[in-house]
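no rush on this but wanted to send it before i forget. theres a chain ive been looking at and ive put its sequence and its fold in token form underneath. i want to understand how the tokens follow from the sequence so walk me through it. thanks a lot i owe you, the record is right below:
>
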Amino acid sequence: MKKKINKMMILIATVTILLTMVLITVVYYDLFRRQVLEDLKSYGLLLSNCSSVEEIEQSGVPVESDLRLTIIGSDGRVLYDNEADSVAMGNHSSRPEIREAMQDGEGEAVRNSETLSRSTFYYAIRLADGSILRLSKDARSIYSIFSQALPMMVGIFIVLVILCMVAAKVLTAKLIAPIEKLAENIGECTEMQTYEELTPFMVMIRKQHEDIMKNARMRQEFSANVSHELKTPLTSISGYAELIETGMASEQDTVRFAHGIHNSANRLLTLINDIIRLSELDGTEGEADTELLNLHEMAQNCVEMLSMSAEKHNVTIALSGTECYVTANRQMMEELLYNLCDNAIRYNNPGGSVDVQTYAREDHTYLIVKDTGIGISKEHQERIFERFYRVDKSRSKSTGGTGLGLAIVKHIIAKSHANLELESEPGKGTTIKVVF
């Protein structure tokens, strides 16, 4: 990263220096050209009152030695030239400066000689008798100026590039220093002293780092919990099977052991199914297939299905409310209802009740599952939707819960774009409200 920033800064500086030098040369030449033409114009105006060569010579106006003076008649024929034979010179009426002077009273032109690398500046002015007085001067062209200044420009360019390289290295080091420090101390990045523009970037990096570490801890805890939860029923199955295999179990014990194997296998199967379902919900990025569902009807089916389980736990379960509809995935809604109602039954008190309500109000559909169970204290309420988190572990074991039901509920609610509200008090029960 340092090298890339360094190279880019040096490249920008180099291009800027080159363009600046070229621009300065062009601007300088333009000023030089204007100055030469202004000088020629000044001489022309001083000599414009003279109508003959003799008058020009007698005017007393000092004429520079490199200044060429030419008088052209109104027909374009050269009448006088101080550097050439006027007779041998051709007609000048087609020259742009002469044509412009005849038309507008004065004219100017610049013609370059690539062979001599020089430019000839012309200024022509129309005299009172209709003839044209032309002054011309040879001067260096822009190419000759540039070539003459090239060694000095190259020297300046090299010095500036070296200075830019040093400056780029220093600035890059200062720019990258906070990022390098961040990489070494990512956990304390918000406490680092840095320039203001980098602060949001560092806050974002720290948040992402915290999320990664949190997810890593959750995966580690999940792996440990899965291993523990799978080990318990497998140990029971292995122990019962070993007793039957060695012949140490009587016929009556064999039936009891077989029942224990069956229960442990069912618990193991339930746990595996819940883990698979959680993995499916985690891995599904797109939207699930949805349809318009009668939530009240689905809740009625769930209540009927769990009535036997409620009777077994000495709990009553009932449905109230009105017909209402949601657009959601059918399988997810069935799982949501089952897990909420099953939890309300499992963690209830003998003789307790579970009240399931469904209704629609103000463009929202509500599902409420209320129980008179053991309740959840404040410190546990934020964590009960974590995988394998249990408030009362001994009760979970006895009721056969896997600790994944509410984690599945949380995923389904997120997938369905719904909101969940929890109200609970130890010894008084729990109310879970889902708003679609």
